[in-house]
Amino acid sequence: MAHRNLRPLLAALLLSPLLRFAFCPSGSWLKKPGRSWAPTALAAADADIPQTNPQGVENRFWQWRGQRIRYQCMGEKNDGPSVLLVHGLFVNADHWRQNMPALAKAGFRVFSIDLLGYGYSSKPDPYGEEGRKINGENGRRLGSPIATLGTAWGGERPDVPVPLEHPLGSVYNFYTWSEEIRDFTKEIIQSGPNGVALVANSIGSISGLQAALDEQELFSGLMILNPNFRELHVAEQPPFITPIVSAVQGWLRSNGQPLFDFLAKPDTVKQILKEPYHDPDTVTDELVDVLLSPLLTEGSATVVFDTLSYSAGPLPEQLLADPGLEKFPVWVCLGEKDPWTPPDRVRALDQYPPVQRVDLLPGIGHCPHDESPQIVNPLLVKFMKSLIQK
C-alpha cells in the first residue's frame, strides 16, 4: 500500500509545475469583466491566449461569479443531445481536442470547459476574499461520513471516515467545481428536459459525480475514463504516511515556486508525461504545448500546490454508493496500463447501482481519450446513444 500511495504523490509533485506554465502568460483574464453571465469571444487584450485549439475550435469565455471561464464547443447547431467534457488534474479543455470532432460528427452538441483555477480560466487566491465568496463549500453541512472504500486488489475497507471539508478552506474543491459545472450547464448549454451527458477523465470524474448528486435533473449520465481514487486523501493514506505527506504539502505551498520553474520546460514535461501515457509516441509536441502553455500563466503554481494540499473531499466509492445516484447511469473505462489506477479496484466498481458497465482497455494509460482516441471515440458515441435509448 505504501508504494501505491507514494508513487502518485511523487508523480503529482512532478506533474504540477509543468502544467501551470503552459496555460497563459499574461494573466489578463484575471481582470474583472464588464459583463456578467454571458459567453464572449476572445478580446483583443487576450492576445497571448490562442484564438483556437490545434483543431481550430474557438476559445470562448463565460463570466461566472466574477471569474472568467474558458470553454469550447462544436456542433452547436446539431439537434442531438449535449455532452460536457470535464478534464482531470492540472490539465484543461484542450485535453479533449481529439474527441470533440468525433462527437460533433455523430450529431451531438459538444462542450469542454476549463475548471476554475485551470487552463485559461481565472485563478483567484485560494484563500482570499474573492475565493471565499464563491467557495462551493459555503452553506453545506460537511462532515466525515463513514464509507466503504476499495483496495488496490479489489477488496473492501468498511467504516472508513471520509473528511469532506477542505483542510485549509480553499476555493479549489469539488463542491466549487460542481457548482461551476451545474451553472455552465444551465446558463450556456441550456440542454432542455433530456439533460446533458457528462464525460470525465481522472479526478474530473469526482467533480462530475458530485455535480450529478447535487442536481441530477440537469444530467442524463456520466462516462468515467480512468477514475482517480485520490491517493493523497487522508482516507487513502496509511497512518504512518500522513505526517510525511502533510510536511511535503506544506513545504511546497511555501517553497514550491523554484521547483515549479525548474520543471516547467517542454523537454521535462514530455518525459514526465511518458509515465501516465503508455505509448511514448503519443506524447507529442502539440500535447506538451496545450498542457504546458496555460500552466505558465499567473497564479497557476499557487493552484497546483494548493490542489496538492487537498487531502479531503468526496471519493468515488462514497459517491457511487449514495442513494441519490442509484438510478443515474454511469459507464467506466480504464486504460489497463495506467500506472496510477489499480485495475482490480476499478473492476469492483461494477457492484454499485449506478455503474452499468466497466470496460478495460488493453495497452492504454491514464488518459485513454487522448492516447487512443480511435478506440475511445466510438465508446463515447456508444455511451451517448445509450442515453437516447434509455
TrEMBL record:
<feature type="signal peptide">
    <location>
        <begin position="1"/>
        <end position="24"/>
    </location>
</feature>
<dbReference type="Pfam" id="PF12697">
    <property type="entry name" value="Abhydrolase_6"/>
</dbReference>
<dbReference type="InterPro" id="IPR029058">
    <property type="entry name" value="AB_hydrolase_fold"/>
</dbReference>
<keyword id="KW-0732">Signal</keyword>
<feature type="domain" description="AB hydrolase-1">
    <location>
        <begin position="83"/>
        <end position="376"/>
    </location>
</feature>
<dbReference type="GO" id="GO:0003824">
    <property type="term" value="F:catalytic activity"/>
</dbReference>
<dbReference type="InterPro" id="IPR000639">
    <property type="entry name" value="Epox_hydrolase-like"/>
</dbReference>
<protein>
    <submittedName>
        <fullName>Pheophytinase, chloroplastic</fullName>
    </submittedName>
</protein>
<dbReference type="InterPro" id="IPR000073">
    <property type="entry name" value="AB_hydrolase_1"/>
</dbReference>
